[in-house]
Amino acid sequence: ALAELIESLRVYGKVTPTDAAQRNFHHDPKYLSLRIGMNSRLDTIQAAILLEKLKIFADEIEKREAIAQRYSRALEGKVRRVPKVIAGGQSVWAQYVIEHESRDGLQAHLTALGIPSMVYYPVPIHQQDFAARFAPPAGTLPVTETASRHVLALPMHPYLGAEDQDRVIEAVLGFNG
Questions:
Q1: What DSSP state is assigned to residue 123?
Q2: Average confidence (pLDDT) over 115-142
Q3: How many domains in the chain?
Q4: Helices (H), 2-114
Q5: What CATH number should be reported for the domain holding residue 152?
Q6: pLDDT in tens, 81-118
């Protein structure tokens, strides 16, 4: 039990196998936090690899930026929302997250076409168990709550070729849900 708790605290307060066995969660508990935790998962081998990756990091960011711009040009006005970067800001585009009125239907459509997508953090932080005593009443963060029902991450990595980008764009635009 102690080892599970330490593991949970090490990974953002994630749900442990014991937590999962004792409760019935309404969402996949992968992105649920039951306690306040931290990100403490970098080991020596990962650090060595990261040192090498830092040599090509700037180039990878440029490639991700080009992909994000291409997605945005194609999808702007066709989906509920495309991501924006504030003036003077920069994104490394770890994810490219759109909002879509029929998110679950679009995700099923993409899956059927063999295109991966992901719903990150389907439960807003203020609605997670660990935040319950601090949380505002339901409905007081409507933008956050609405976004959590519409967000969907599309494929994004620096080696996503033009053909694959076209496939993703065409699949999103071709969805009739």
A1: S
A2: 89
A3: 2
A4: 2-10, 17-22, 44-53, 57-75, 103-112
A5: 3.90.1150.10
A6: 999 999 999 999 999 999 999 999 999 999 999 999 99
